[in-house]
Specification:
The chain is α/β, with parallel strands linked by helices. The protein has a single domain, classed as Alpha-Beta Barrel (TIM Barrel), CATH 3.20.20. The chain has six helices and six strands, in the order ββαααβααβαββ. A hairpin with a 2-residue loop joins strand 5 and strand 6. The longest helix is centred in the middle third of the chain and has 20 residues. The protein is globular.
Length: about 220
């Protein structure tokens, strides 16, 4: 039975030596926060290089190539239970954790988000369309990148926590999911998922060790 168990690490903790991304044994897959931050910074802030984005898109060989780990060793999130939801990433520049009772001091300040000009969910049509395009870009990157994609429950529905990026203590409508909702991003997810399955998960490929970004794309070399 244990031979069928999938081992997935959230490889960070508080205290000295708590951050261990890429250091777990070969049988473990690991959450890769480098992918999360690079994808958000590339699409929402335009302050990360094409080379760094390409390396994260190609399974982060700088972190996972040693010990013969396959591309599936990197679990690629754009969002997780900690931090903004996908919708909040494109609607808020700042965290709004006042409801948690800690005077908004809890939760990270490094969200790499973009409200597209208006803070909050309500916006005009032009802003909503820009937000939709950014969310689609992030979701498509997640599904097509080499590695194991990790989708936060509710992101496919456009779920929002109204800017709360540390909602572990909110057992109420802020975090509950309405499974009856099915907006356009859910249709995008269904449309993008089949090529993602054929590209990375169903057919493991060698890690890309490095490459050169050009105007025509990325010239990459598989790691030995």
């Amino acid at each position: 039975m244990l031979s069928q168990v999938k081992l997935i690490a959230e490889p960070w903790d508080i205290g000295p030596g708590g951050y261990q991304v890429g250091n777990f044994p070969p049988l473990f897959a690991e959450w890769n926060d480098h992918f999360r931050d690079s994808a958000r910074r590339f699409w929402l802030q335009q302050n990360v290089s094409l080379g760094d984005f390409a390396q994260r898109f190609a399974a982060s060989s700088d972190l996972f190539a040693r010990d013969g780990k396959p591309p599936s060793a990197t679990v690629n999130p754009v969002t997780a239970h900690d931090g903004f939801t996908l919708r909040d990433c494109v609607c808020f520049n700042q965290k709004h954790n006042e409801a948690n009772g800690e005077e908004n001091r809890d939760g990270t300040n490094n969200n790499y988000s973009n409200n597209h000009g208006i803070e909050g969910l309500e916006a005009n049509f032009a802003v909503i369309e820009r937000r939709r395009a950014s969310a689609h870009a992030l979701l498509t990157t997640l599904l097509l990148a080499q590695g194991t994609p990790m989708l936060l429950a509710g992101d496919e529905q456009g779920h929002s926590q109204h800017g709360n990026n540390n909602a572990y203590c909110r057992d109420n409508a802020l975090t509950w999911l309405d499974w009856r909702r099915e907006p356009g991003i859910n249709r995008l997810y269904r449309g993008a998922d089949p090529p993602a399955a054929s590209y990375s998960g169903a057919h493991p490929q060698p890690l890309v060790a490095g490459g050169m970004a050009t105007s025509a794309g990325l010239i990459a070399t598989p790691s030995p």
